[in-house]
Each structure stands twice: as C-alpha cells, then as structure tokens.
Write a structure and sequence with these properties.
Blueprint (H helix, E strand, L loop, with lengths): L33 H10 L7 E5 L3 H4 L8 H4 L9 E4 L1 H7 L8 E4 L1 E2 L11 E2 L3 H6 L4 E6 L6 H17 L4 E5 L9 H13 L4 E5 L5 H6 L5 E4 L6 H13 L4 E4 L1 H4 L4 H14 L3 H16 L1
Parallel strand pairs: 1-2, 1-10, 2-3, 3-6, 6-7, 7-8, 8-9, 9-10
Antiparallel strand pairs: 4-5
Helix pairs in contact: 9-11, 9-12, 11-12
The chain binds ribulose-5-phosphate (5RP).
C-alpha cells in the first residue's frame, strides 16, 4: 500500500497558463467523443488535415478486379505509402499482415454483384467483428435516387448507430447508379444526406463544375474516390483540384493499383494530398520513382 505520509503537496499548477482547450482539426467533428476523434486522427493526418486512403474493396461486388487479382501480392508494397487501408474483412484476414498498424476502414456492406442491381445492399459485418478487426471506421454506400435508396440509407444509419456505441466512425460512400447524373446538384444532395444522417465523413466523386459547392454544403469532411483508371497525369490533376477545392483527401483504388507503377503513383498522390505538390511536379515525381524502380 502506498505510504500516505510520503504524499507531497503539489507545487506546479501553472497558474499563469489557461487550461488547454484546442478545437479538433477536422471539419464538423468538434463535438465527437475522444475515441471517435482519436480514430479520425489516425485516418486523417492531423498536420495536413488530409488522408490518402487506399481502396481495394472492389472485389466485394465485382470479383477479381484488374490490378488486385492477387491482393496478397498487389497490396503489401503499397501499405507503407498509404495512410489508410479500405477493404473487406475477407481481404483483411486473408491477405494483410496483422503486423500492419495502418488504420482500417472496413467495408461493411454486401449483398449485390455487378450482375444485379447495385443498390440492393445489406449490412454485412457485425459490429463485434469490426471491433475484433480493430477497425478505425466502418463504411457502406448510400444510393440516393436508386431503386434501393431507402434500404441503402437504412444500412448506413445502422452502421452509424452501432459504431457510435463503441466510438467507431462511419464513412458514407455516395454510390452512383449507372444511369444517374454525376453533377453538383446530385452530389450536393447525396453528401448532405450522408452528413445529416450522422456519417462522420463522406466519400464522393470529383466533378468539374461545382465541386467547391458540394464540399461547402457538406458539414463533415469529403474524400474523393478515384473512379475509373485515367492517365497518371490526369489522376494527379484531379486529386490536386479536389483538395484545392476543399476535399480532405482521396480514397483511391484503380488509379493506384492499375497504374504502370502503383508504388510510384501512391507516393505522387500523397505528395499532392499532403504537400499540395502541383500536378506537374507530382507527375515528374511519379516518372522519376517509376524509372528508379525499373532500375
Ligand atoms: C467501391 C468503392 C471503392 O472503394 C471506390 O470506388 C474507390 O475506388 P476507385 O478509386 O477505384 O473508384 O467504394 O464501391
């Protein structure tokens, strides 16, 4: 038992210094609990306020996608350069070493395939399993305007409610059906709905006209998906314009793992996202790294 006689009177109360009460660095996240903020601080770099998420969850509805046919070969070389890994629990358990300390954003929906209606999803991971996997966040799509809009929003609401019990944030992905408009009005609507139902951050797509307004109308951070494979210079330009107009980073898949040099590409994307590197400099960086690696 501690010796009570030895307790000394406190001396240094810093009476001239007010108690620290710093605002949290992420948009719309000031009122969250410590555990939520701590997990979000692992996802978003507190210095830049941004993130490079590596998305390789595509197989959950489209099978062995080009570039990640073998996730155990394609993903490990990219891990040191990613801030976050976004994947399914199946990919995580089978292909990613548990010695990796990168935060995981866990794909927590399924129930459809490219052969059927994309919006027809269900919550496909129990919160207990997300906790077992040490997920930093959980995620599913809302398909605004699609056939199963209601169900998809209900899925994300369920993730938000169950995740909130344990301090685990939810990323809402704005899924877009094949024949739906991809404009500022649509993404303004979808991202705002995602934030208002309580998503802690939102994934959307960059659009040429009005992206800044989409970001402004969404009270929590937005990250952009990469979308279909573009030439490297165009993908870097898109990332640059997105963060310049207020995106808090990228959640990029095909434009990284389908690149001629995925390891060079993810580093070039990181330079744009975290250091505001210009698209021209980032492309040069990509080319230099690629030729170094080719020897
Ligand atoms: C699939 C997803 C993907 O993770 C997302 O689309 C990012 O990948 P990409 O950059 O290849 O578009 O949410 O539903």
């Amino acid at each position: 038992m501690a010796d009570l006689d030895d307790i000394k009177e406190g001396k240094d109360f810093g009476l001239d210094t007010p108690a620290r009460n710093e605002p949290f660095f992420l948009k719309g996240s000031n009122a969250l609990d410590w555990g939520m903020q701590n997990r979000l601080s692992r996802i978003f770099n507190p210095d830049s306020g941004r993130t490079v998420m590596l998305a390789f969850d595509h197989g959950y509805f489209q099978g062995p996608t080009t570039g990640i046919e073998r996730m155990d070969l394609a993903i490990p070389p990219l891990i040191p350069h990613a801030d976050v890994l976004m994947c399914t629990r199946g990919a995580l358990r089978s292909c990613i070493s548990p010695t990796s300390t990168k935060p995981i954003v866990l794909r927590s929906s399924a129930g459809q395939s490219i052969l059927t209606e994309l919006s027809n999803e269900l919550v496909a991971v129990d919160i207990d399993d997300a906790i077992r996997l040490n997920a930093a966040a959980i995620t599913a799509q809302i398909y605004v305007g699609a056939e199963y809009e209601h169900q998809s929003i209900a899925n994300v609401v369920k993730l938000i409610d169950t995740g909130s019990r344990y301090g685990i944030p939810t990323l809402a992905v704005t899924g877009v059906g094949a024949d739906m408009a991809r404009d500022a009005r649509y993404f303004g609507l979808a991202t705002r709905i995602a934030a208002e139902i309580g998503a802690h951050y939102v994934k959307s797509y960059f659009i040429e006209d009005g992206f800044e307004k989409v970001v402004a109308g969404c009270p929590v951070p937005i990250v952009i998906a990469g979308g279909k494979k573009l030439p490297e210079g165009e993908a870097l330009e898109m990332a640059y314009r997105a963060v310049d107009q207020g995106a808090a980073g990228v959640d990029m898949g095909r434009n990284i793992f389908q690149s001629d040099s995925p390891v060079a590409m993810i580093q070039a994307v990181g330079a744009v996202v975290h250091r505001n590197e210009s698209p021209d400099n980032a492309l040069q960086m990509y080319q230099d790294l690629k030729s170094d690696m080719e020897g």
